[in-house]
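Milestone 3.1: sequence recovery, worked example.
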């Protein structure tokens, strides 16, 4: 298995780019599967769904970073054990363990971020046994642009805005946390805007392909 993760703030284009990448490998006859977290439609995602709906508190900080991280991690663990641990080829994840670094470090002082990242790796990848990504692509977007895109999506689809998405200060802090984790852990950062303008999705996708292809070839997948 070659595990490629695409993560970033809400509204940054994770779902779109994940689908484009999966389609790209399908066209090359590479065995590819796409997964997305949280799994709202599965029993494993029930606690996450309640948390994001505000049932444990209207603000993200009402639920501590370790408790919230455990909810998201168990959703991933159950899905891995019951489903995708059997997959071969390329697996593309829209969000992963990386999302806990982006969204949960916001709740603690920056002086504790290294400690949290070490705990997160040990908890999810060592104790729970979730596979470590071969590549993490972080789609970087200013928090205000991300929030505007989320609102636009909600207005057009009726999708409810969760407690992360509606909290401007949380999104701002999440971007700081995401860029910090990216530098610390070696994620591939792709800038998705030029000033106030969102870059064309194909321009962003071209950089994603270049990064992903290098990892796939390195892992001896047929490209």
């Amino acid at each position: 298995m070659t595990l490629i993760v695409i993560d970033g703030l809400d509204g940054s284009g994770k779902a779109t780019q994940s689908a484009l990448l999966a389609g790209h490998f399908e066209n090359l006859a590479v065995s590819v599967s796409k997964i997305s977290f949280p799994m709202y439609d599965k029993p494993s995602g029930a606690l996450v769904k309640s948390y994001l709906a505000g049932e444990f508190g209207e603000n993200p900080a009402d639920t501590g970073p370790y408790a919230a991280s455990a909810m998201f991690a168990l959703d991933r663990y159950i899905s891995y054990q019951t489903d995708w641990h059997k997959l071969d080829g390329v697996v593309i994840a829209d969000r992963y363990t990386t999302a806990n670094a982006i969204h949960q470090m916001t709740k603690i002082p920056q002086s504790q971020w290294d400690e949290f990242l070490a705990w997160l790796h040990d908890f999810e990848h060592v104790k729970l046994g979730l596979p470590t990504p071969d590549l993490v692509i972080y789609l970087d977007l200013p928090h205000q642009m991300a929030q505007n895109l989320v609102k636009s999506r909600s207005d057009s689809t009726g999708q409810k805005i969760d407690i992360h998405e509606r909290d401007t200060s949380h999104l701002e802090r999440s971007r700081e946390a995401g860029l910090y984790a990216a530098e610390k852990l070696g994620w591939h950062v792709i800038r998705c805007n030029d000033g106030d303008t969102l870059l064309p999705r194909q321009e962003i996708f071209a950089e994603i392909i270049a990064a992903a292809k290098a990892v796939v070839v390195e892992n001896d997948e047929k490209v």
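Strands lie at 2-8, 32-36, 90-94, 135-140, 188-191, 193-194, 197-198. The domain at 2-218 is CATH 3.40.50.300 (Rossmann fold).
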